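ok here's the first one, seq then struct tokens
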Amino acid sequence: MEPSHQSSHQSVLALKCVKPNNLLKPAIFENVNVIHQLRCGGVLEAIRISCAGYPTNKSFTDFVNRFGLLVPVVLRTNHDKKDACQKILNDVGIPGYQIGKAKVFLRAGHMAALDTRRAERLDIAIVYIQRTTRSYLIRKRFLAMANLAVALQTLCRGKLASKMYDDMKKRSVSLKIQTNFRRYTLRSSDIKLQHAVVLI
């Protein structure tokens, strides 16, 4: 391909080199000289005009993915991306935006306001998740401790009941021994008394 044919099919880009210093030496940067070159080249004016208009633009998909959590209905339903962007901006209350064919155009400060609202919503969600997780872990630990306490109480009651049963068994045996001993002594004294009565 010839260079002339090649250049006719491509878009023209203007390249402007900025000299960092008048001596043309490396590692030396003169702020005043660079700003003068940018001002003369129209770069600063182009930036000012861009900022005065709609300095921020985002594609519909990027915008919905980033700010969809501000209006969760948009994420739950199958909205068209363009309509979803418009609904998000209207519900949040951002004035003076423009919707293009493929992008959302925002004025200066709108992106910062949206990011602030997004950060607030994320903070609320994070606090909710932390609170739920902490309550789950504390409840789990409490239930484990309660089950352990119940098991310990059951073991102690079992040991106590076993000891009481052994004591009752010993008492019953001692009562039987005492009863039999008394019966024996009474019987033997009764027999002696009968022999004495017979002898008299």
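and now the second one, same deal
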Amino acid sequence: IVALHGLNGHAFRSWEYYDSKTRERFMWLRDCLPEQIPTARVITYGYNANVYSDVSMGRMRTFAETFLERLRYIRERNPARPLMIIAHSMGGLIIKQACLIRNHSTDKRYDSIINSVSGIVFLGTPHQGGNGV
């Protein structure tokens, strides 16, 4: 399971709840998901999401290409392992761009990634665009 945060987010804090009164933290990807799916390997993917004023298609493509390359490296030992992606906001747009890159390329480097995807969860992804996206 790979989780991508959204615009102006953080690889870890975006998925975390913090109670300022009790100072307790709950990061559901770490604290709950492994209990529910014990065989899952859960990772977060971080990128420079502080780009509110510059979210051009070229930049999105660069984010998507970097994501694919890093994911390919991480999955080198087991490229056929099933893959579930959770993406919030701009993270969802990066995932969509990554799929487009693979679909419009003769390069086969990313085939194992795309073929291993068993599901994608989009959370608040502006599929139709939005202010600043």
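notes on #2: The mean pLDDT is 89. The chain has five helices and six strands.
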